[in-house]
Task: inverse folding
């Protein structure tokens, strides 16, 4: 069963109200870091796995990409993406990313933003990406950090006055399914260790070029409620790699 | 001020009673993982930074190393190392690792076991290692995992009955000094993020070849008290890299 929470009406409506949904990349705390790791898209063929609203597809086109394919499992997400996208060279494909099939070396760059933690098996996806990337091509992806997914609840620990004490680390080496509450709904995600994320790339023909745990940006620290607490735990991991 | 807790009489005596001190590598939960990442030492010149009792120096010689230099800040540790070591090709040097100075490309391999988290600044050490390694040479090191060093106390959270609830994650992005209790003594360590550990290597001429968070070995899980709990948090990080 492949996870497609975003086609759930209630969840989708709530997701649509998030600032990162309404305002796009600029409202995402990790965007500045992610952007700094992206390759030069000029004249390149880009694949976005789990493209959602298509923000990264549009960005690649704005940076001069030759063509973009955005893949997402959710019809609802792609409906919005299609409305937002004016570039004819962007094609959207409604499919679980595990099932897509492209000829060898079809892309110069593969991007995936906060999607791989919905995937039960990481290695087949890595092998697929290796297959479709040309040699020297780039993979850049973000996922929820293993620290954030390990325990399962994704909730802070609070004291009796409701003040945050710390974030709980537990179950780290027990990889697999977690059910976390996101926007008031149960969402299934998959925890895997940092070892698994990085060594799966290294053992499948990738060279790691950068690994970053994005910090909350300075200008958001004081103005966005809760953002200062994000200095206390790593919530995301961004990795860039090239096909050897 | 460079950390030299191991020359403190009381601390040293307590450390000497640990099973990893008495029984060597085989008693260290991470050894099997560390060993699998080490290069072939046959005919090689090896440098061990923070060599302690010299276990890794001796191991390298047993594997056919041509010569080994073990560096440690603690006289007491090196006294024991010298007694344990029968190989004439091993030289021990009592010095903070930050202060050693070797000609360019003097070594084929650099090893460091659980020592870099005592060092305030990581980048100068990485640059030094890059300088003394020959091209294609290996660096393999273990450190306390950023998850383990972040909060500071290195203690589990317990419920009122004294049962472990989880391990606390806090202060992750605030790098720097931590004072943890180890063997009943205050020990100064330095927390740094995974981002810092890995990108400092990547941006100073190293290629990452493997990143492993060693799990407690199967055969220790049931027989060593507390070992099963080590499945709940990553305590160490082992990295192998080569000089590009």
Result:
């Amino acid at each position: 069963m492949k996870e497609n929470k975003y086609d759930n009406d209630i969840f989708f409506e709530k997701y649509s109200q998030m600032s990162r949904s309404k305002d796009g990349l600029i409202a995402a705390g990790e965007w500045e870091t992610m952007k700094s790791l992206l390759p030069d898209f000029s004249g390149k063929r880009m694949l976005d796995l789990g493209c959602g609203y298509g923000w990264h597809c549009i960005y690649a086109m704005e940076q001069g990409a030759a063509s973009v394919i955005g893949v997402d499992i959710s019809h609802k997400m792609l409906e919005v993406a299609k409305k937002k996208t004016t570039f004819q060279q962007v094609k959207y494909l409604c499919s679980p990313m595990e099932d897509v099939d492209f000829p060898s070396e079809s892309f110069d760059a593969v991007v995936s933003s906060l999607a791989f933690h919905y995937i039960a098996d990481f290695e087949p996806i890595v092998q697929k990406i290796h297959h479709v990337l040309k040699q020297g091509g780039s993979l850049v992806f973000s996922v929820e950090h293993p620290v954030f997914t390990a325990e399962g609840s994704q909730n802070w620990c609070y004291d009796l006055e409701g003040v945050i004490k710390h974030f709980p680390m537990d179950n780290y080496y027990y990889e697999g399914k977690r059910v976390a509450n996101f926007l008031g709904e149960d969402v299934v995600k998959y925890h895997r260790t940092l070892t698994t994320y990085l060594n799966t790339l290294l053992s499948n023909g990738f060279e790691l070029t950068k690994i970053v745990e994005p910090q909350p940006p300075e200008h958001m620290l004081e103005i966005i409620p809760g953002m200062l607490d994000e200095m206390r735990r790593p919530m995301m991991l961004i990795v860039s790699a090239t096909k050897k």
